[in-house]
Write a structure and sequence with these properties.
With about 350 residues, this protein is α/β, with parallel strands linked by helices. It folds into two domains: about 190 residues, 3-Layer(aba) Sandwich (Rossmann fold), CATH 3.40.50; about 100 residues, Hypothetical Protein Yjia, Chain: A,domain 2 (2-Layer Sandwich). About 25% of the residues lie in helices and about 25% in strands. The protein has nine helices and 13 strands. A hairpin with a 2-residue loop joins strand 11 and strand 12. The longest helix has 15 residues. The radius of gyration is 21 Å and the shape is globular. Keywords: Chaperone, Hydrolase, Nucleotide-binding. GO terms for molecular function: hydrolase activity; nucleotide binding. This is G3E family GTPase. Pfam families: cobW (PF02492), CobW_C (PF07683).
Length: about 350
């Protein structure tokens, strides 16, 4: 008898510092009549629950809400909650086709993301769609001086700015410039009192290697939500620990030398590389090579062929913690110069 086949469940990780508005956003998500069956795993350390009446004493408790969404309060291991949801879904007790995980305000989203790469069964049943990070516009200047808040921004596929109405245009622009310097590849959107178009939260495809993938330094504009169009980021007086590094080459890359460069980079700095993505032009190959990773976990694949009117160049975006930018640039240029 053949094994049953499952369509992977898209997973969204919701991150953000204390008080940024994660729970407010989740309440809106769970109370809206959107016709979607969304499960939410709420961590036990959240300041206020989505609904205090849902929180029981069991390690994992699952409750189906009126609009068909599912709330799961976690008081122990994340993997236990993930398997519990699968068991109840497979047995027909609950129904959902998307999952959102709320991280605590002081949590690093990396271990949550790695869960979906390490465990084979979870990797088959769930697919990581994206990491969303909420940023409190009013308190960000202080919070972003903390390394964990910078890391949350660095891991993000999309940045959601809350409390925009509490800051003036000058301070908002300064915040956006700083966010862009930390994470150049994440579009910035504004959340108004926990409300935002669901299209900005779901189907982000931040971990997909496909034809839609591209580490654009300019976020794609969408009419569904406010879009912040930024000038090139300027350096601030105080350097952030987390920052973006962009490597470019118009010269076709030798795949063996590229492999040596990447292996050396990951061996020495893998634990400091929060997120990295690239579209590469490989010598003698008509197709684009795309790759991305989180820390030392990464994937790559051959993509579509370069279009006739498309500039054939290699672009790599590295987001890391205290990376030696000058040294990495030099080693990259040495690799390119030997071609």
């Amino acid at each position: 008898m053949s094994e049953p086949s499952f369509t992977p469940i898209p997973v969204t990780i919701l991150s953000g510092f204390l008080g940024a508005g994660k729970t407010t956003l989740l309440r809106h998500l769970l109370k809206t009549e959107h016709g979607l069956k969304i499960a939410v795993i709420e961590n036990e350390l959240a300041e206020t629950g989505i609904d205090s009446e849902l929180l029981g004493e069991q390690p994992v408790q699952v409750v189906t809400l009126a609009n068909g969404c599912v709330c799961c309060s976690v008081r122990s291991d994340l993997e236990m909650a993930l398997f519990t949801l699968l068991e109840q879904r497979d047995s027909g007790v609950i129904a959902f086709d998307r999952l959102v995980i709320e991280c605590t305000g002081m949590a690093d989203p990396a271990p949550v993301a790695q869960t979906f790469f390490i465990d084979e069964e979870l990797r088959e049943r769930y697919i990581l769609d994206g990491i969303l990070t909420l940023v409190d516009a009013a308190h960000a200047p202080f919070q972003l001086n903390l390394s964990i808040a910078q890391a949350q921004v660095g891991f993000a596929d999309r940045l959601l700015v809350s409390k925009r109405d509490l800051v003036d245009e000058t301070n908002f622009e300064a915040l956006c410039q700083r966010l862009q310097r930390i994470n150049r590849r994440a579009p910035i959107r504004v959340v108004e009192h926990g409300q935002i178009d669901l299209a900005e939260l779901l189907d982000v495809r931040g971990f997909n290697l496909n034809d839609d993938f591209a580490p654009d330094l300019k976020a794609e504009s969408k009419q569904a939500a406010p879009f912040v169009s930024l000038r090139p980021a300027e350096k601030s007086r105080a350097e952030d620990r987390i920052a973006s590094l962009v490597l470019r080459s118009e010269k076709p890359l030798d795949i063996d030398r590229l492999s040596d460069f990447m292996n050396s980079l990951l061996e020495e700095f893998g634990n400091s590389l929060l997120r990295y993505k690239g579209v590469l032009h490989i010598a003698g190959e008509p197709r684009r090579l795309v790759f991305q990773g989180v820390l030392k976990l990464y994937g790559f694949d051959w993509d579509r062929e370069w279009a006739a009117d498309e500039k054939q160049e290699s672009v790599m975006v590295l987001i890391g913690d205290s990376l030696p930018e000058a040294r990495i640039r030099q080693e990259f240029m040495q690799m390119v110069a030997t071609l």
